[in-house]
Amino acid sequence: MSSTLALIFIGVAVLFILGIKFLSSPKTARYGNLLAAAGMIPLLGSEETSLLKHGWNLNYTLMVVGILIGLALGAVGAYSVKMTAMPQMVAAFNGLGGGAAALVASLEFLRRAQNHDITTSVAVPMLFATLIGSLSFSGSIIAFLKLEGKFERPHTFPGQNFLNGLVLLVILGLCGYLMSGQPNATAFIVMFVLALLFGIAMVMPIGGADMPVVISLLNSFTGLAVAGDGFVINNLSMIVAGTLVGSSGTLLTLLMCKAMNRPVTNVLFGAFGSGGGGQAAAAGVAGTVKPIQADEAALLLAYAQRVVVVPGYGLAVAQAQHQVRELSDELGKRGVEVQFAIHPVAGRMPGHMNVLLAEANVPYDQLQEMEAINPSMDRVDVCLVIGANDVVNPAAREEKTSPIYGMPIIEADHAKTVIVMKRSMAKGFAGIENHLFYKDNTRMLFGDAKASLNALIAAVKAN
Ligand code: NAP
Description:
By secondary structure, the protein is of the alpha/beta class.
């Protein structure tokens, strides 16, 4: 490799890494995205990469048509997707990435098999990329369907783990056979199909609720498959980008599990949401539910010194981000200090609340992470919980038998008054009763978050 090319690759790797770094803050996330995308441009033209390396032998018309179709589908999808359907979209894109990586490696394997040109060293990355990419593809499709509400509940049967283990053993056995330099296309296709089935079997027993974690894990698989492809077609940029996606996806998976206080094995094999490890029903929770009307809630807010808003999944469902910003501005005009407490797994994907609030231009300095705000929650006059449930459930602290026991929460119950805005007494994602709703200092403002916020804004303005 020429030194100029080496420098280009280092520069590209730096752009990718900076891109990921910038993605970690809402302030810089957009630049991060642009930087990483910019990193791809020099690669298209670099001698080592597919486009120019293959000279003019490539079918450029077909490529341009493919790129245009991809661009159109991606742009239409990204513009039209609802915020609440974002996890599905990530699942779909991730699945396509995994499938593409598996196809690149498979076609290369079959081509070389035809030419009897397979050695162990080339077979290893090809089989790795095929196996990981195809199970990521089929697993992501199941994750997508579960998020769409199809067969959401964990599908388990006795001996399932044993059967899955057996399928995995057969796959690995076939890989071992193919690695020993056997250019056997039939064995390869059987391995490919079994890997697809294994992806389905791996995700089916996991509850729809755990899909964001599964998608993050499958995303890291897709990254690794792409890195494997990089070795197959000798493309350094794919190795760098794939490894970065693989490692960041793994870290994200672990961080999400940590924020829920559940080991990753519990997510993968615990069938969370199947109703098994249920806990105290409403009858077992001490206290009573005390409703409040918007007028009275508005008075509490308007005359508070410090208000903390805890947004959750319901805010995204109601698409009430602009209303919450308007209420915050209105209170700000009256000299009330308003902050937003962001739980790391509020909503249905990491950063969900940040993206939602950024859409309504809520100033970043009003956003506080859970660890930063919790120590001062007892100095909050009103904590306004909007469509959040599990992330403020004190059962995580108080109820040893609760499935969410040990999960870090926003200590909303420490505020002087808590106003919870939701439509009913329905449970949240974890399917468990929320002790906060029954506390002495809690009032329930029932209704759709958008309608309730509009009523609050009008009432605050009138005061
Ligand atoms: P949550 O526990 O799912 O609760 C959301 C609440 O919003 C529901 O109780 C629902 O009650 C209410 N709601 C729904 N639509 C509404 C509307 N239109 N107006 C007002 N309220 C509405 O949400 P969360 O507190 O944000 O917790 C997130 C959960 O997702 C956690 O359990 C977390 O572990 C899990 N999770 C998150 C991620 C992630 O990356 N963010 C990943 C994996 C798992 P009503 O039906 O009564 O209105």
